[in-house]
Amino acid sequence: MTKLVVIGGNAAGMSPAAQVNRRAPDLDIVVLERGLYTSFAGAGLPYFVSGAVPSSANLVVRTPQEHRARGIDVRTGHEAIAVDPAARTVRVRAGDGHDYDEAFDQLVIATGAAPIRPPIPGIDAYGVTVVHTIPDAERLDEWIRTRSPRHAVVVGGGYTGLEMVEALLDRGLAVTLVEKRDQPLASLDVDMADRVSTGLADLGVDTRFGTSATGFDTEPKGWVRAVSTDAGDIPADLVVIALGVRPNTRLAVDAGIAIGPSGAIATDAHLATNLDGIWAAGDCAESLHRVSGKPVWVGLGTHANQHGRVVGLNIAGIPAEFPGVIATAITKVGPVEVGRTGLGEDQARAAGFEPVTRTVEGDTRADYFPGTAKIAVKIIAERGTKRMLGAQIVGGPGSAKRIDALAIAVWNAMTVDEFAQTDLGYAPPYSPVLDPSLIAARLTGDAARSS
Amino acid sequence: MTKLVVIGGNAAGMSPAAQVNRRAPDLDIVVLERGLYTSFAGAGLPYFVSGAVPSSANLVVRTPQEHRARGIDVRTGHEAIAVDPAARTVRVRAGDGHDYDEAFDQLVIATGAAPIRPPIPGIDAYGVTVVHTIPDAERLDEWIRTRSPRHAVVVGGGYTGLEMVEALLDRGLAVTLVEKRDQPLASLDVDMADRVSTGLADLGVDTRFGTSATGFDTEPKGWVRAVSTDAGDIPADLVVIALGVRPNTRLAVDAGIAIGPSGAIATDAHLATNLDGIWAAGDCAESLHRVSGKPVWVGLGTHANQHGRVVGLNIAGIPAEFPGVIATAITKVGPVEVGRTGLGEDQARAAGFEPVTRTVEGDTRADYFPGTAKIAVKIIAERGTKRMLGAQIVGGPGSAKRIDALAIAVWNAMTVDEFAQTDLGYAPPYSPVLDPSLIAARLTGDAARSS
Hints:
Shape of chain A: globular
Number of helices of chain A: 12
Largest sheet of chain A: 5 strands, parallel
Strand order of the largest sheet of chain A: 3-2-1-7-18
Distance between the termini of chain A: 63 Å
Largest interface: A-B, 60 and 60 residues
Number of strands of chain A: 25
Oligomer: homodimer
Helix content of chain A: 25-40%
């Protein structure tokens, strides 16, 4: 009997385990998870902190018990500490502290990513936390409930940072956002990010762009009381560190698994690593970017799920390829919705394209319809070919998921001229007669003629 | 100097007029409009009746005065009564009753469509109306304000019919819907339409499917008091006829312009008719259906706008082709949102495909997120090739515009397998980690293997 070992019990690990369990029931499956949870929605953590989601248990898609009931041997509290590709074993540290070797025929590395916690003074103070796991979020929630903090500082203005800003505002705290770049959401072009900055200011957030946290000052009992920055101190009863994540690759590196240019595990089209019978999926693995044609590391839950399925099919003997990503992402902060896909303007230039862009400010609904909101749609196209390279949206309610139609257009390498003539849904409660995305494509098409 | 005459002052007529005015300022432009309004949003009429849009003036995108200020000679109250292609003249009946000939070099026929008013007894009674123009909607609004009707009957369960059902419910009336088919929204497959029927029942609408109106009974003063049907009488203080529209082609037919198999004006890829220098746009004209490859008549405001632009560019000397339609349409009735694109199951069969379909019931948001609603996504694919032929959505708030991503996939003739692996936006307030559309594509792909 062949044995599959999976390292990591979140989506990228449990998805191939479930695929194999369903499609190749003869295989033994062992999943090693160093934490206590499987298959939880990390993207939902800010909404547990905000109070929108009443219990952290709501975020668990499937518990270890549920996986076990389906015949998958899930071992929580079991950390893989080394992989021996020649011996085909994983060295495991069990919850009770003893180590043992687990043999495998096929191995999936789904070790995920770890939040960045820079070694600045005071980062281990009470009241300072990342929000990456359910225990992180529960601890933060408890702090808010029991210590009644009034002023929070969020360090880092990426997706998680902004979602935590919203969550803390929802909990009634005053929030300062510290971001070393001059804009929030580094994956947005600066002109679009500026619209988000305006939205943050409208929500009463004290935004400090171009500012780096240099330390955390504490009270005598060890609780944080201020964030030191290169532009002065900011009082804080609570600090959320949201500086992004890094792929967990130590195990792979030590085993001789190749790392790609992005710093994550290199994979081929089947998501196989350079070592036979060893696969990588999720936040620890690279993906091909369909527009740049280069390997990238993005780290989105959608990709983790899609990766996991492809790996599972391949292990189950059903050849499957991963078609790549275009890094579509959406978020919101208060009433401001954000969507992006493909390459931004600078990314396009870096990938060797000559980008042409146009931004349209339109309405989410017919302009006469109650509740209509402003929406800005930016399209990035290649001069001459007019190929759509990317798109970005910032607007009011009803804006974010509009990125999906643009994403499918970018995925298919449509030209802006062709996209401008497509047939999208129109009804006054949901759109002007021509969706703002179509107008943006028209204007970009006019601008993107060969110079 | 060359002269362009446009017959019809709504979107399909004013759009080419505006294009030509901007891009070929040397051309003289005369627009003949028999009514008093130009460029109004017909799709907004139900929302004026409902009270959501406070004034019918809000629905006018651009008034005749505004068009004239831009240099377009718009003549309202002027009806084109005949076209002489050989003499290159249009016979015009002016508002004062006198007739004259207007010469043209280029002619755009944008005569639109007329609501179907079957010759059944009593259809001209007071209290019975179609809702096709601003005066229609204003009259209906006045009836509701001044006569305090309590019970309305809507005859016809298409898009306009359902939107009028919603509008009348919003005005506090009890509403009965009479529809001769066994389902609302004939462009939906019956299984998806049944979900809409359930939604109507949940709203308290008395639905009478498989029932035909046979007459309108009136009070002595001529006001409607009941709708007679083949299944008994239904008391009514107010009746809205929403039996669809028919293309206005009489003028074209009389001039020798070819009509296509759909009954609307036949056009080539440039939207030229069979007569040199005569073009057709909007609800009076056919379009190529990109999936069936056949000419169809759909009659949507989106197409009217897109048609108009293509015609305008061609007349301005910038060659442009109309790429065809996939009949994407969205609507809502109460909290129930509807979207459809491409071919339905029966339409696919009629077009010569062997359709395979799957329907997924999912959530509009992460299932743990407050305010999540049920959404059903059906995908229609071709067996063997797995090409996406169409898709339909019925669900709660946040459902309708999801059809756009599916529309772009159908537009590009993607396979369900490829669509299932695309990269759509995910955030818990807006979507499960894998959008229900992707799950529906996966299942359809599994089912659509060659048999």
